[in-house]
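Two entries, shown back to back:
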Amino acid sequence: MRLPSTAVCLSVLLAFCAPAAWGATIVIKDDKSQPESLAAAPDGTLIVGSASTPFVYKVKKGSTTPEVFIDASAEGPGTFFFGQLVDGDTVWSCMLTPVPGVTPVARHTALIGSDFRTGKRKLRWDLPGANTTCNVMAVGPDKALYISDTGNAKIYRLAPGAQSAELWLDNRLVTGIDGLTFLNGTLYYNSVFFNNLYRVPVDANGKAGTPVQIWMDAPVKGIDGLRTTKDGKMLQAENGSGKIHMLTINGDTAHVTVLKDGLKQPTGMDQSGDVIWIAERAAGQVVSIPMPK
């Protein structure tokens, strides 16, 4: 994640090769369109949010034509999107809107739940506070949705069927939280500020304990999105070094295996079948690579 100083409304045109094959590319008009996060549905559909426009796009498998999935133009000037997640028939999105006339820059942010088929609004929950950063979300083994607030070092929990989330973890070690995912029932997150990876222990009552740092055995720079693949591998983006890597967790150590380098500010990724789709924010495009065996 890199917070933009301004968000400019741009019309977006996507053109790409067959999305079912790795090596394909989705070009989003130009390098200013900033695809920050993406999510892949089980049917191969891609949901792509823009960090410079008030739009989220849907790209159906086999299609070469994008559809506007969410249009948040009415939310106010500069509205844009971060995290995207497909959860059954719901698409979860983090929407950010600048507060006008405030210096330094402040934002009101919200978690948006939309119907996967129609885009119809199902839920809106505004993060509490005068200046917040809804960034990403993940579904836990309890079927609840966990949401990161990067600027305020917090994780919220939205219980199944609830209309508002509750504070789940507020700890200084959560400062700069960006990526968030579950692996084998355990919540892991990273800090884009400090380039650290953590797991969160949970007691028998579901209460979060003090985060435990996981030592990564290779240098990383600007770690960003986290995703767990269908076969239990953890993927992590490095927006500062242009890499996507895989993490193999062994206790409090993580082995880093680079899957792709030479990218322009990769900020998120997700698996679709036998490929990994990557949001390459600074290049204004989404690219795919083969899923490692």
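entry 2 starts here
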Amino acid sequence: MDPARHEYRIQTICLLIISTVAVAAVLYWLRPVLVPFVLAVFIAYGLLPLVEFQVRQLHLPYLVAVASTLVIGVLILGSLGLLISTSVSQLQANADAYQKQIELLGAKVSALLPAGTFRAEGNPFAQLPLGNISGMLIQTTNAIVGLLSQGLLVLIFVLYLLLGGARQKAGGVWAEIETRIEHYIVTKALISLATGFLVGLTLAVLGVDLALVFGLLAFLLNFIPSVGSIIATLLPVPVVVVSPDISTTTAILAILLPSLIQIVIGNIIEPKVMGEALDLHPIVILMALIVWGMLWGVVGMLLATPMTAILKILFERLEPMAPVAQVLAGRLDAFRS
């Protein structure tokens, strides 16, 4: 290889690494502003079909369609906030009953263990605070509350983005990005809504506390590929275990049925409906979850897949970065050639 060409490649790689680190630092530093804005962009893409439906089918003026869509958005946001607030209050009100159940479970475990396992200070299970039992649920709920607290800023961004949607749509690469992302968001939202509804309904029928919250969490976490469905399935376990009114059979069903719903929808229905909408390799999606989660937290994980798809589409249109786009799709043979 020509020494000058080899040196040029090394310089290009070094500049690419430095640029990546710099961009990541900027994204992390500006996340208080970028997170609501990027979230608003994807929400606007999800709401645009509803606006266009009102304009085409109901023959409403565009501004009226945008206003009605925003009213629906505000009502949904307020309902979610009320649901979470009510459920957290329910969790606190049942704290004593949960604590007694923890003590009962601790006594049963102590009876099964050999004598002298615990010291004289008593059974440590009886002194377990409720926060350690349901900490995962509370932390996830707090993250959602923090997300909803930025709802006003997000709605302002969504308003301007929807008003800008009245202009003629762009063509070329950006049109392809809009088409793919809009298809992904709408389809994923409908599938996630079905998942959350079925999970919440199942837990409510079984009499599990916070059933509606678990349905909401299943809806939101379904936007995180693979990992989200696992977390949504495990979240009800602490509440199911410490609920005094739930029998063993009901507890098993409360864990088994939501798992079955997640498996059927995630592995059978969703692949057939979604197809290769984003054309990303599963390993790439997992790495994107890690990277965007480190930068932007829970919101970054929710938006990791569509944002990585946008980068892939852009790389496909840039000749020097075309091999990287092939790697993101999992086509390593094309990269080697």
